[in-house]
Write a structure and sequence with these properties.
The chain is α/β, with parallel strands linked by helices. It has 2 domains: 141 residues, Aspartate Aminotransferase, domain 1; 253 residues, Aspartate Aminotransferase, domain 2 (3-Layer(aba) Sandwich), CATH 3.40.640. It has 12 helices and 17 strands. Strand 4 and strand 5 form a beta hairpin. The structure holds pyridoxal-5'-phosphate. The site of pyridoxal-5'-phosphate has 14 residues, from helix 4 and helix 7.
Length: 407
């Protein structure tokens, strides 16, 4: 008899974005022709940088001729891209990361989801609340959680991110084995200062634990004192894996390219106390289950590091950050406390009421879609997330309407 993985039965139905769609559709049906502005989705809206498109086209043409055609590439990614990443994203910022420690992939979503399979089934996981749902759900699927009770899974350490701690969770009392951190954060937009990240690195070293650091939004950091990579901190090379993506940085959400850094000095332990290199485990995993990102996409990603590419990406990020500044600057005078939006494309707004009630009010009275914070975890109750990913014109129109409603 074919039996299912019963861990899937523990999963909470993925309710957030389907419920948003349902409420938006109901509103549209009741008010046909009424224009809706979406500041809810974590997806970019502007075209790929020209440097990327040019490189993409050239690489497609190479595929058209037998003499330049490329078949299977290296599972870890082409050296031309891995070398640029190591040089521009790490060594130029004083982080000692080498090309062969970088694994190019089709997304930080898949990598943050898949990485857990190289660890034991009975390790203790620490996950922030509110959170990007992938970290939690993939561990539930793998059987690392207990059942759901009162909105939380048993056997998971929740790291509460609240106004009290500035949305940067402190160290847990328990000994976590695997810790997920995401900065700049989705959904709160919060950033972590170097000294606080150092505490996490020290905690991991002391407990022989590992940090999974999701830096998908590092390109949005403007404050030069903030770490853009965990490897800017001393000692992190032994206890951290970092995830990055071209998705939000360069508009690759539909094109798909990301990378994961597994330093060769990162170790984990077997039950007999033996030491193993996570780099060789992840390499084995990828070589077995993944066949690499397409050549034209990797050429398009490489162009991000050319002179024109870097200038165009800077302009792209600046455009969204201009939206973020506008949202903050206009929400705060209305009496709404905002986190984020200064070094991240998300603004986390304290609603002074239930998240979904606030969502309904903005939808019904302003025709603006946001994301209810409670959909990201218990600590998100009483907040909404507003995204800066839209045209400047739409953001301005949305804020004009929100102002009318909240004034
Ligand atoms: C958007 C996002 C990513 C990137 O995902 P891709 O699969 O690379 O598109 C990763 N982590 C977080 C928290 C995100 O919001």
């Amino acid at each position: 008899m074919i039996r299912i993985n019963e861990n899937y039965l523990k999963l909470r139905p993925s309710y957030l974005f389907s419920e948003i769609s349902r409420r938006v559709a109901a509103f549209q049906e009741a008010h046909p022709g009424k224009d809706i502005i979406r500041l809810g989705i974590g997806d970019v809206t502007r075209a790929l940088p020209k440097a990327c498109i040019d490189a993409f086209h050239l690489a497609v043409d190479e595929m058209a001729s037998d003499s330049t055609f490329k078949g299977y590439g290296p599972e870890q990614g082409y050296a031309f891209l891995r070398e640029k990443i190591a040089r521009y994203d790490y060594r130029s910022r004083g982080a000692e990361i080498h090309a062969d420690e970088i694994f190019v992939s089709d997304g930080a979503k898949s990598d943050t989801a898949n990485i857990q399979e190289i660890f034991s089934g009975d390790i203790l996981i620490a996950i922030p609340d509110p959170v990007y749902p992938v970290y939690l759900d993939t561990n539930v699927m793998a059987g690392r959680s207990g059942d759901l009770g009162d909105g939380r899974y048993k056997n998971i350490i929740y790291l509460d991110s609240t106004a009290e701690n500035g949305f940067v969770p402190g160290l847990p009392k328990e000994k976590a084995d695997l810790i997920y951190l995401c900065f700049p954060n989705n959904p709160t937009g919060a950033v972590i200062p170097k000294d606080m990240l150092k505490q996490w690195v020290d905690y991991a070293r002391h407990n022989k634990a590992l940090i999974l650091y999701d830096a998908a939004y590092e390109a949005f950091i403007k404050d030069g004192s903030l770490p853009r990579s965990i490897y800017e901190l001393e000692g992190a090379r032994e206890v951290a894996i970092e995830f990055r993506s071209f998705s939000k940085t360069a508009g690759f959400t539909g094109t798909r390219c990301a990378y994961t850094v597994v330093p060769k000095s990162c170790m984990a332990y077997d039950s007999a106390g033996g030491t193993h290199s996570l780099h060789s485990f992840w390499n084995r995993r990828q070589a077995t289950k993944f066949n690499g990102v397409s050549y034209p996409v990797q050429k398009a990603a490489e162009a991000v590091y050319s002179d024109e590419g870097r200038a165009q990406v800077k302009e792209l990020i600046g455009y969204y950050m201009n939206n973020a500044s506008l949202i903050r600057a206009r929400m705060q005078p209305l009496g709404y406390t905002c986190t984020g939006g200064e070094n991240s494309p998300y603004i986390w707004v304290k609603t002074l009421m239930d998240s979904w009630d606030f969502f309904d009010m903005l939808l019904n009275k302003a025709g603006v879609v946001c994301t209810p914070g409670s959909g990201f975890g218990r600590c998100g109750q009483g907040y909404i997330r507003i995204s800066a990913f839209n045209s400047h014109e739409n953001v301005e129109r949305a804020i004009d309407r929100i102002e009318q409603v909240l004034k």
